[in-house]
Amino acid sequence: MTTSPVGAGGRPDSDGWQQRFMDEMEALSVTPPTAPALMRVLAYMAVCQPREQTASQIQDELGLSAGSVSSAFRRLQRIGVIERTAQQGSRRVFYRFAEQGWERLLQARFRTLSELRRVADRAVDAAGPHPDPRLIRMRETSRAVEDGMAALLNSEPG
Fold first, then answer.
1. What is the CATH topology of the domain spanning 8-97?
2. What is the distance between the alpha carbons of residues 128 and 125, in angstroms, rounded to a whole number?
3. Labelling 118: which of 62, 63, 80, 134 has CA 20 to 30 A away?
């Protein structure tokens, strides 16, 4: 039997903070292409007990289809947020939140920002001697955020 942050039938735990956390993470998916199910799996894996779960345990706990959980795992594994594990004496595959999962998730999200800056660099360069101030602002803002995020990701938490 699985001990988890939500009770039977998906009801919240006694004080509800884990359920609220999962709901808030799911709400962040308003920016495509992140599916609500992926955000729910991500949030669950960050708070579930025990830390290692099978896909079927997650499906049952979150009320998601096998396809939704499988798709979420593929995407989260690809960026290194979730990792597969094995337990001695069991043939089942388990998953857990990776040690550097949050850093990897943020790095993946900020790759898009880096690409935005590269696009702006190319546009400013291509515009000639008098590039549009909006392009310059795009490039400088992207660069500042990118540099700031790089510094944050390379610093020790706390």
1. Arc Repressor Mutant, subunit A (1.10.10)
2. 6
3. 80
